[in-house]
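User: Can you write out an input/output pair for a complex, sequences first and structure second?

Assistant: Here is one pair. Inputs:
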Amino acid sequence: MVVDGKVAIDHDECVDCGVCKRADICPTDAIYMPSECFEYPRAIRMQFSDPGVQHPNLKAWGRGTEEAKTNDVTGKFGRGEYGLLIEFGRPGTGTRLTEIEKVTMAMCKMGIPILEDNPLYGLLEEDMSGRFKPEYVNEKVLSAILELRIMEDKLEETLEKMFLSFEALNTVVSVGLVSRFDENSKLPVIEKLRRMGFDVRPNAKINVGLGRPLID
Amino acid sequence: MSHSLHRFGTEDNLRNDFCIYTRAAKGINRENCGDKLRETLKIYLSENVVNFGSSHAGRCFLNGLDPEEYAKTLDHSYGIIATFADREAVKGVLVKAKEAQLGISTVVSGLIEEVVEIAHEAGLKPHTALISLGIHGKTSMLPENEVLEFTTMCGHSLVAQNLVRSVIEKVKGGKLTPEEGALILAKPCTCGIFNTRRCAALMKEKLEKETRK
């Protein structure tokens, strides 16, 4: 934004991702992070937006969890189950937590638990309503992932309600689904999703089963 | 690392775009995994790697991250990620990782059918997939598709849409080569998953279209 004829950072909109600081291109130190960026509640902005900053409660970097990445050794998502990864603000728009809350509340109403080993979980009220603690709701992050586990027979109902809750959003969401391969290295869920009318992108992330001890 | 999942593009231009992420699991094989990650890095470096990076160091290989210095930091990490632009390199990594019996979970992102095929050729059985159901919500906030093809190569969204537009204009105007433009766009992506070869190929495609006009 422009203040007194000079370009300045709008700190209310800034998500503290650190890109402009790392670029190190300002000769007059006009690009800076005010001290409040390092204090709560604002500190969560950089924890979600800058991949080089840890989430202190999880001692993990980034926006999500191990999800499919280590599923060959954790068995977090078994056969007959799916994981849903709903990433708010991605790609590139950012999101206030108020937007995420619209979906967390809808999911909690359906009785779908939000997985605990996820950076968003610690920001939620403890009453299982899906509401965030009031100090965090207006914070803005570059993106954040809501992670859910659902049973196979709940897929259609969950997706229908989830996509309905997206209609009220003032941000974008990138949606991912975790599924086990079958014995023939096929993903039956893809055909199932297409029959339901959902588009599935041709590219994916595939855990190739190199982890040990392997959980089959 | 769903940050390499939602790469936007056509089946054709995503064909030679792979990321490999080796990640130790909390409470299972993360303790003292530094040596295994260093071994993995050696394997990556032996197979025509395009880029890799360190969000902790705040820079990627193509922006000056020194592999030897990076290797020293891996005792404080639990995973490493790299970008590749050809299937044989990916197969090479998987074959070597299997032979080394490191036992650390490994994820490959790319076209589903192609990754499954490569895994089979390497003697591996794919275990779990994270598939993409696309972008939803208020999609009117998104930039045009041709910009998304570039920005989504950094899944943490650290490559700004206006930087992409500016670089495209400079390439079209002959002020930058496609390769120089790709390097500029790769720098903000500290994890090093921005694929400069795919980026340069996309730029060249745009130049050819301009020339034909």
